[in-house]
Fold:
Amino acid sequence: MSEITFAVEQLNRIHKGPAWHGPSLTEAVAGVSAENAARRLSAGAHNIWDLVHHIAAWDNVFGLRLMGEPIDEPSEGDFPASTSISAEQWTDLIARLNSAHDQLVEAVSRLEGSDLEQLVVGEEYSKRFLIDGSIIHHVYHTGQIVILKRALNI
Structure:
């Protein structure tokens, strides 16, 4: 199996399942209502909504970087703020998350093995490093969501 095929498989497993580490992100947010996604354990702490928005925003950045676009961070910021919470907005955010994931997978799929050592435009690290980091980022925040669900009895 090529490194590109392996990376695509890992990205899809951590997002859609079956994941090796526990629930995939899709499994972790399944059945979470907008109201529960917006609940906070304490003031200033991130909630599930924040984490999903953050993952979607950064998956978009990672995909753009792999396609050669020099971008520092999401246009909406590192942890984008949500001005209002509704079931419709939660559904839209989950759709955005899935779309950003699909675009990232597409960007990785277009690479050749020889591209992996190329530096990301405007950065001092390789495309391989970015892909590995995106996988770790996804798993880390999925774990946070699972812990939040347990703490909030969701």
Summary: The chain has a mean pLDDT of 96. The two ends are 39 Å apart (CA to CA). The longest helix spans residues 127-151.
